[in-house]
Amino acid sequence: MSAAPGKAARGFVASGALVLAAGVALGAVASHAAGRAPHPDAARLLQTAVDYQLVHGVGLVLVGVLARFASTRWLVLAGASFLLGIAFFCGSLCWLAFTGRSAGPVAPLGGMLFIVGWVLVAVHALARERR
Predict the structure, then answer these.
(1) Which of 93, 91, 8, 114 lies closest to 46, judged by CA?
(2) DSSP string covering the chain
(3) For 81-109, b where at least 16 C-beta lie within 10 A, e where not — what string?
(4) Are the beta carbons of 63 and 79 closer than 8 angstroms?
(5) How far is CA 42 from the centre of its chain?
């Protein structure tokens, strides 16, 4: 089972580029707003969110590039895992930094989605080609 290579590839590259742009913007906001945020460790939380967002934005672009050659269900699931991981992990850290309130187990779930995404990229790389 494979998705349309062009559509999946374009979607993940575009998503990755937008995630990277938002990560740079978040980094700029964090450098100026962290001191006024209600959480005492806001600067550290925001820097962690930015770091993970940038790394996984590059991961999304990688998934898109790989999908140009052979889009598989593993890559589609990896890309979806990265997107959800960014939303859950990075989003919950930003939420905590800017509101002072925890989002519960959302950050660990996002972290697990990052791990699953990378494992799925490995599965894609090791899977046999179907002809």
Answers:
(1) 93
(2) ----HHHHHHHHHHHHHHHHHHHHHHHHHHHHHGGGSSSTTHHHHHHHHHHHHHHHHHHHHHHHHHHHH---HHHHHHHHHHHHHIIIIIHHHHHHHHHS---TTHHHHHHHHHHHHHHHHHHHHHSPPP-
(3) bbbbbbebbbbbbbbbbbeeeebeebbee
(4) yes
(5) 20
- Calculate the dihedral angle through the C-alpha atoms of 40, 55, 15, 1, rounding to the nearest 10 degrees: -130
Instruction: Give me the sign of the Cα torsion angle 37, 94, 53, 17.
Output: negative
Question: 23-79: per-residue pLDDT in tens?
Answer: 999 999 888 888 888 899 999 999 999 999 999 999 999 999 999 998 899 999 999
Global confidence as pTM: 0.91
Phi, then psi, of 38 in degrees rounded to 5: -70, -25
